[in-house]
Model the fold of this input.
Amino acid sequence: MESVYLRIFLFVLCSLGLLVLSRRALKEIGSHGFYRFFAFEGILFLILHNHPYWFDRPFSLPQLIAWTLLGLSIFYVVQGLGGLKRHGGSKHREDFPGNLPFENTVHLVETGLYRYVRHPMYGSLLFLGWGACFKHLSWLTVFVGLVVTLFLIVAARVEEKENIDFFGDVYRDYMTRSKMFIPYIL
Done:
Protein backbone atom coordinates (compact mmCIF):
# COMPACT_ATOMS: atom_id res chain seq x y z
CA MET A 1 0.00 0.00 0.00
CA GLU A 2 2.94 2.28 0.71
CA SER A 3 4.01 1.95 -2.92
CA VAL A 4 0.60 3.16 -4.13
CA TYR A 5 0.84 6.34 -2.06
CA LEU A 6 4.37 6.95 -3.28
CA ARG A 7 3.26 6.55 -6.91
CA ILE A 8 0.34 8.93 -6.33
CA PHE A 9 2.70 11.45 -4.74
CA LEU A 10 5.12 11.11 -7.68
CA PHE A 11 2.26 11.50 -10.17
CA VAL A 12 1.11 14.72 -8.51
CA LEU A 13 4.67 16.04 -8.22
CA CYS A 14 5.55 15.24 -11.85
CA SER A 15 2.19 16.60 -13.02
CA LEU A 16 3.00 19.90 -11.34
CA GLY A 17 6.28 19.96 -13.25
CA LEU A 18 4.45 19.23 -16.50
CA LEU A 19 1.98 22.00 -15.71
CA VAL A 20 4.81 24.48 -15.24
CA LEU A 21 6.51 23.30 -18.45
CA SER A 22 3.23 23.47 -20.40
CA ARG A 23 1.66 26.53 -18.78
CA ARG A 24 1.77 28.73 -21.90
CA ALA A 25 0.56 25.94 -24.19
CA LEU A 26 -2.35 25.16 -21.88
CA LYS A 27 -3.54 28.75 -22.28
CA GLU A 28 -3.73 28.18 -26.04
CA ILE A 29 -6.54 25.62 -26.24
CA GLY A 30 -6.24 23.95 -29.61
CA SER A 31 -2.46 24.35 -29.92
CA HIS A 32 -0.32 21.24 -30.35
CA GLY A 33 1.20 21.80 -26.90
CA PHE A 34 -2.25 21.67 -25.31
CA TYR A 35 -2.85 18.14 -26.59
CA ARG A 36 0.74 17.10 -25.94
CA PHE A 37 0.29 17.91 -22.24
CA PHE A 38 -2.44 15.27 -21.94
CA ALA A 39 -0.27 12.74 -23.77
CA PHE A 40 2.50 13.46 -21.23
CA GLU A 41 0.05 12.90 -18.38
CA GLY A 42 -1.07 9.57 -19.82
CA ILE A 43 2.52 8.41 -20.28
CA LEU A 44 3.35 9.47 -16.73
CA PHE A 45 0.40 7.41 -15.50
CA LEU A 46 1.54 4.36 -17.51
CA ILE A 47 5.10 4.57 -16.20
CA LEU A 48 4.07 4.95 -12.56
CA HIS A 49 1.17 2.49 -12.71
CA ASN A 50 3.35 -0.24 -14.24
CA HIS A 51 6.47 0.58 -12.24
CA PRO A 52 6.07 -2.45 -9.91
CA TYR A 53 6.17 -4.75 -12.95
CA TRP A 54 9.07 -3.09 -14.74
CA PHE A 55 11.45 -6.04 -14.33
CA ASP A 56 9.00 -8.95 -13.88
CA ARG A 57 9.55 -11.92 -16.20
CA PRO A 58 12.34 -10.12 -18.11
CA PHE A 59 12.36 -12.52 -21.09
CA SER A 60 8.60 -12.77 -21.61
CA LEU A 61 7.25 -11.55 -24.95
CA PRO A 62 5.52 -8.44 -23.49
CA GLN A 63 8.73 -7.43 -21.70
CA LEU A 64 10.82 -7.91 -24.83
CA ILE A 65 8.34 -5.81 -26.80
CA ALA A 66 8.39 -3.18 -24.04
CA TRP A 67 12.19 -2.92 -24.01
CA THR A 68 12.29 -2.72 -27.81
CA LEU A 69 9.77 0.13 -27.80
CA LEU A 70 11.63 1.92 -25.01
CA GLY A 71 14.88 1.59 -26.96
CA LEU A 72 13.20 3.04 -30.05
CA SER A 73 11.91 5.89 -27.90
CA ILE A 74 15.45 6.79 -26.84
CA PHE A 75 16.73 6.51 -30.42
CA TYR A 76 13.95 8.77 -31.72
CA VAL A 77 14.41 11.49 -29.09
CA VAL A 78 18.20 11.58 -29.55
CA GLN A 79 17.90 11.70 -33.35
CA GLY A 80 15.03 14.21 -33.25
CA LEU A 81 16.68 16.67 -30.88
CA GLY A 82 20.01 16.31 -32.66
CA GLY A 83 18.42 17.04 -36.03
CA LEU A 84 16.62 20.10 -34.70
CA LYS A 85 19.75 21.42 -33.06
CA ARG A 86 21.99 20.87 -36.10
CA HIS A 87 19.65 21.93 -38.90
CA GLY A 88 16.54 23.66 -37.54
CA GLY A 89 17.85 26.95 -36.30
CA SER A 90 15.92 28.75 -33.61
CA LYS A 91 14.13 32.04 -33.23
CA HIS A 92 11.40 33.28 -30.90
CA ARG A 93 8.11 33.16 -32.79
CA GLU A 94 5.38 35.51 -31.61
CA ASP A 95 2.78 33.48 -33.50
CA PHE A 96 3.42 30.46 -31.23
CA PRO A 97 4.11 31.76 -27.71
CA GLY A 98 3.29 28.37 -26.17
CA ASN A 99 6.12 26.60 -28.01
CA LEU A 100 9.09 25.28 -26.11
CA PRO A 101 12.34 26.94 -27.28
CA PHE A 102 13.59 23.94 -29.29
CA GLU A 103 10.31 23.87 -31.24
CA ASN A 104 10.82 27.31 -32.77
CA THR A 105 12.81 26.18 -35.76
CA VAL A 106 13.27 28.49 -38.70
CA HIS A 107 14.41 25.85 -41.21
CA LEU A 108 12.49 22.73 -42.17
CA VAL A 109 14.59 19.72 -41.13
CA GLU A 110 14.52 16.91 -43.70
CA THR A 111 17.70 15.01 -42.87
CA GLY A 112 18.41 12.04 -40.62
CA LEU A 113 15.28 10.56 -39.08
CA TYR A 114 13.32 13.61 -40.29
CA ARG A 115 13.81 12.34 -43.82
CA TYR A 116 11.36 9.54 -43.01
CA VAL A 117 9.35 10.83 -40.02
CA ARG A 118 7.78 14.27 -39.56
CA HIS A 119 7.37 13.96 -35.80
CA PRO A 120 10.21 11.98 -34.21
CA MET A 121 9.60 13.60 -30.84
CA TYR A 122 5.96 12.50 -30.84
CA GLY A 123 7.07 9.12 -32.19
CA SER A 124 9.40 8.89 -29.20
CA LEU A 125 6.48 9.60 -26.86
CA LEU A 126 4.37 7.02 -28.68
CA PHE A 127 7.05 4.37 -28.21
CA LEU A 128 7.57 5.43 -24.59
CA GLY A 129 3.86 5.17 -23.82
CA TRP A 130 3.41 1.77 -25.42
CA GLY A 131 6.70 0.53 -23.95
CA ALA A 132 5.41 1.42 -20.49
CA CYS A 133 2.04 -0.13 -21.33
CA PHE A 134 3.61 -3.46 -22.33
CA LYS A 135 5.36 -3.71 -18.96
CA HIS A 136 2.07 -4.96 -17.53
CA LEU A 137 -0.78 -5.28 -20.00
CA SER A 138 -4.28 -4.77 -18.66
CA TRP A 139 -7.51 -3.30 -19.96
CA LEU A 140 -6.69 -0.07 -18.13
CA THR A 141 -3.17 0.29 -19.52
CA VAL A 142 -4.23 -0.55 -23.08
CA PHE A 143 -7.05 2.02 -22.80
CA VAL A 144 -4.64 4.69 -21.54
CA GLY A 145 -2.17 3.72 -24.30
CA LEU A 146 -4.90 4.26 -26.90
CA VAL A 147 -5.85 7.63 -25.35
CA VAL A 148 -2.18 8.70 -25.38
CA THR A 149 -1.96 7.65 -29.04
CA LEU A 150 -5.06 9.71 -29.86
CA PHE A 151 -3.66 12.81 -28.12
CA LEU A 152 -0.34 12.42 -29.97
CA ILE A 153 -2.10 12.10 -33.33
CA VAL A 154 -4.20 15.20 -32.62
CA ALA A 155 -1.11 17.13 -31.44
CA ALA A 156 0.78 16.11 -34.59
CA ARG A 157 -2.13 17.10 -36.87
CA VAL A 158 -2.42 20.51 -35.18
CA GLU A 159 1.35 21.01 -35.41
CA GLU A 160 1.23 20.13 -39.10
CA LYS A 161 -1.34 22.90 -39.67
CA GLU A 162 0.94 25.29 -37.77
CA ASN A 163 3.91 24.17 -39.88
CA ILE A 164 1.98 24.65 -43.12
CA ASP A 165 1.16 28.19 -41.98
CA PHE A 166 4.84 28.84 -41.23
CA PHE A 167 6.68 26.91 -44.00
CA GLY A 168 3.94 26.88 -46.67
CA ASP A 169 3.97 24.51 -49.66
CA VAL A 170 7.44 23.25 -48.78
CA TYR A 171 5.92 21.55 -45.72
CA ARG A 172 2.99 20.17 -47.74
CA ASP A 173 5.50 18.59 -50.13
CA TYR A 174 7.48 17.23 -47.18
CA MET A 175 4.30 15.60 -45.85
CA THR A 176 3.94 13.62 -49.08
CA ARG A 177 7.46 12.22 -48.70
CA SER A 178 7.39 11.28 -45.01
CA LYS A 179 5.24 9.47 -42.48
CA MET A 180 3.90 10.89 -39.25
CA PHE A 181 5.62 8.64 -36.65
CA ILE A 182 6.96 5.39 -38.08
CA PRO A 183 8.90 5.17 -41.38
CA TYR A 184 6.92 3.54 -44.23
CA ILE A 185 4.00 2.68 -41.88
CA LEU A 186 2.30 5.53 -39.99
